[in-house]
Amino acid sequence: MDWKMRKVLVTGGASFIGSHLVDALVERGAAVRVIDNLSSGRLANLRDHLDDGRVEFIHGDLMESGMADCVVRDVQVVFHLAADHGGRGYVDLHQAACATNLALDGMLFAACQRAGVEKVVYASSGCVYPNFLQTDPDEILYLTEDKAGPPYDADNMYGWAKLMGELTLAAYSRDWGMKSVSCRYFTVYGSRGHENHAVIAMIARAFVGQDPFVVWGTGEQVRNWTHVSAIVRGTVLAAEKIDDATAINLGTMARTRVLDAVHEVLRYTGHRARIELHPEMPTGPMNRVADNGLAKRLLGWEPEVEFMDGLRKTVDWYFAEKNRDEVRMVLDRMLMAR
Q1: How confident is the model over 311-336, as a mean pLDDT?
Q2: Spatial CB neighbours of 244, under 8 Å, sequence gap ≥ 6
Q3: Average pLDDT of the chain to the nearest whole number
Q4: Residues 99, 158: Cα–Cα separation, whole Å
Q5: Cα 318 from Cα 201, distance rounded (Å)
Q6: What's the pLDDT tens digit per position in 164-176?
Q7: What angle do CA 95, 41, 285 make, to 5 degrees?
Q8: How confident is the model at residue 205 (pLDDT cuts 50, 70, 90)?
Q9: Which residues pair with 11 in a beta bridge?
Q10: CA torsion through residues 284, 140, 220, 192, sign
Q11: pLDDT digits (tens, 9 = 90+) for 262-272
């Protein structure tokens, strides 16, 4: 696909992942429009593009009547990343807020159909996979795309909304021929990330010198943290190569325990602290790792950034950009907020 001057909408484009995607699309020559309500996104993430006039920004809420129809007008490709979401503390404790994504996605997809949008690229999630599969951290488990089928047991209302979004796009494809692809993101980290997600929370705790160093859960939880650069590259490739509403995993297959990540953060930052485990806190599944074989076959994609390398780069970014006093003031709140 030639992106040069292709008219593109990125919902949630001022957010962590969304702003990196905007960078990639601008670099490819696309004409990018962003809508974001700035509930978690930051205009600073788009500042250079806005100053140069390369991105059209709309400060708006897609839940408002008529907004979706307005922003998709004259657009060829929609990258839908806007959602009410946060880290584990948020998705566990704010179920009603995450449930609003059901309405948001439905309104946007219907507007895309009415406007004749060529393709919708949907930011889905590893949260669509059944919880009952992900309980044993000692099991060598890789989640293939078909495992999101029945019996359904998605991860909280956030996961159910993402699953319904995927199924809606599949129905639009069957019934009306609307082109789309769903990208299942797995535990994304990197620069511009928020303290409500695990990797940035670990880095923030070291940054402010927390002692004891708090870790939610037993620390045995297994994750496949995937660098934002790989997620963006996979998302663009999915837009270029998949039309039939296929859902595809974007995640590394490297299995990393939470405690292993914690030890590397402490080692790399030089922070000496006693680790204090809090198994009563929200932790999510004990064993969540993608199988990315389908992405390799259909997209020619696989992650290029090893986790420990990406973690150290993210530490460097965080320590260079953040103010310790400000982080201390907001850290406890951010762990549970957007």
Answers
A1: 96
A2: 173, 179, 181
A3: 97
A4: 6
A5: 11
A6: 999 999 999 999 9
A7: 40
A8: very high
A9: 35, 80
A10: negative
A11: 999 999 999 99
Is the pLDDT at 338 greater than 90, yes or no? no
Question: Which class for 174: exposed (0-12), middle (13-18), buried (19 or more C-beta within 10 A)?
Answer: exposed
Q: Which residues pair with 58 in a beta bridge?
A: 35
Check residue 145 and report its DSSP letter.
G
Q: Please list, in sequence order, all residues whose beta carbon lies within 8 angstroms of the beta carbon of residue 49, skipping any fewer than 6 positions away.
A: 22, 23, 26, 32, 55
Between strands 213-216 and 256-257, the pairing is unpaired
Per the CB < 8 A criterion, the answer to whether 55 and 8 are in contact is no
Residue found by looking up tokens 């994609």 in the block: 301
Beta bridge partners of 287: 222
> Pick from 233, 308, 173, 274: which is nearest to 25 by CA?
233
Burial class (CB in 10 A: 0-12, 13-18, 19+), 113: middle
Both tokens assigned to 205 = 């705790």
Beta bridge partners of 227: 189
Give how far the C-alpha of residue 317 lies from the chain's centroid of Cα atoms, to the nearest Å: 19
Residue 24 near residue 13, CB atoms below 8 Å: no
pTM as predicted: 0.97
Torsion angle, CA of 161/163/166/171, rounded to 10 degrees?
Answer: -90
Give the C-alpha separation, 273 to 52, whole Å: 45
**Nearest by Cα to 125 from 81, 178, 184:** 184
With H, G, I as helix, E, B as strand and everything else as coil, classify residue 117. Answer: coil
Cβ neighbours of residue 314 under 8 Å, at least 6 residues apart? 189, 190, 191, 193, 199, 200, 203
